[in-house]
Amino acid sequence: MSDLSAKPINKIQRRLRAVFFYLRIKNVWLRLLFTAVLSPSLSLFAQKPDSLVHLMFAGDVTLANHFENHVGYDLSYPFKYLDWFGQADISMVNLENPLTRRGKPADKLFTFRTKPEYVHILQAGGIDIVTLANNHIYDYGAQGLYDTIRILDKGGIRHVGAGGTLPEARRPVVFRKKDLRLAYLAYYGLGRHSDSHPATEDSAGTAMRDLNYIREDIQQIREQVDVVIINFHWGIEKENYPQPDQRAFAHAVIDAGADFIIGHHPHVLQGIEKYKGKLIAYSLGNFIFGGNSRRYERSIVLEILINPKNAGEYRVRVHPVEIKNWQPAAAGQEARKKVVEDLRQFSSVFPSSFQLKAD
Predict the structure, then answer these.
(1) 7 inside domain
(2) What is the rounded CA–CA span in Å between residue 225 and residue 221?
(3) Which of 148, 92, 88 is nearest to 118 (CA)?
(4) Domain enclosing residue 125, as ranges
(5) 172 contacts 134 by C-beta, under 8 angstroms
(6) Which residue of 14, 206, 244, 251 sits 20 to 30 Å from the alpha carbon of 115, by its own alpha carbon?
């Protein structure tokens, strides 16, 4: 298989700052290419950009607490400087708050909820699907979860990882884009039960990170789709490296048939591993996390470009972002360099090392 090339996804030929991952699947090499500005003429795939399937992933989103106090009713504020998501075929974030004003708060240190009308923030930002498999979606009980699901459904935003029953929580969301069939699944599991509420056969909650469940779910959907994407809410907060048991678990899930694993929860960036030609992003870090008072953060947006004629051919771009007052934007030069340095360091612990090149 020869190397592939493609133009940037920008349909209006804008210049983007980005970090590119080139992935070797079979004979396609994975490398990291840091570039300050992308030229519209830069070629990555032989196919035209519109023929590729573009997926976007960002990290933890909590439109509550400090965020709500700062933003109020300015629904355009969070995505004012980012239009990447609306230009992708499918864009996804980790939604860590129920959209509700009802329900009783859980007996825990931090509980989040926000205005139901904030669903319009996700719509305006171009978000197509959210994972609800996290430790805050049940902060206001079944009522809060049901309200969230109803509001997302009404707003046309798909969701995975939680539901009124265990089968609902485990149910995949399937998209068909340019004849490519993609399945999304999501699971929660931090290794503790103090802030979890697992769904059961007859009660609401999240899909838990159980390897037997995950193998079953992949097996049931694998023959019906071309790509399987798994989201995990896992790891230790503020740690930049995954735990050994996480890596072993991720490898087992890839062995079971997953193509991509996207991680959340640590609230900081972690490394990206290549395992058997598949990609594991252990943590994308915070994106719009109003649950804390930090007014400045650095993070990434992960973009995956797939050849719909051969789902085994894909590339990954990493866009560094700066978040100021819970408003992400393309990172400036110094912040971009810092993100690249961090990503190189955090990924260096994996046997499948990446080559980082600055242009």
Answers:
(1) no
(2) 7
(3) 148
(4) 18-358
(5) no
(6) 206
Distance CA 206, CA 50 (A): 36
Domains contained in the chain, number: 1
Per residue in 290-332, pLDDT tens? 777 677 889 999 999 999 999 999 988 899 999 999 999 999 9
Distance CA 253, CA 214 (A): 7
In this structure, are residues 89 and 54 in contact, taking their beta carbons and an 8 Å threshold?
Answer: yes
Q: Confirm if 142 and 148 have CB atoms less than 8 A apart.
A: no
Query: What are the structure tokens assigned to 64, written together?
Result: 């509550």
Give residue 13's pLDDT. 36
Rounded Cα gap, residues 257 and 270, in angstroms: 23
Grade residue 27 by pLDDT with cuts at 50, 70 and 90: very low
Could you tell me the maximum CA-CA distance found in the chain, to the nearest angstrom?
Answer: 57
Per-residue confidence band for 124, with pLDDT thresholds at 50, 70 and 90: very high
Asked if residue 170 is part of any domain, the answer here is yes
- 54, containing H or E segment: strand 53-62
Is 204 domain-assigned?
yes
Whichever domain contains 124, its CATH number is 3.60.21.10
Of residues 46, 16, 84, 53, the one with CA closest to residue 259: 53
Asked whether residue 219 carries a pLDDT value surpassing 90, the answer given is: yes
Sequence-ordered list of residues with C-beta below 8 angstroms from that of 63, at least 6 positions apart, any chain = 71, 78, 97, 114, 115, 118, 121, 288, 290
**Rounded distance, CA 296 to CA 293, Å?**
9
Residue 209 · residue 261 · CB < 8 Å: no
Residue 12 lies in a domain: no
First CA to last CA distance, the chain:
26
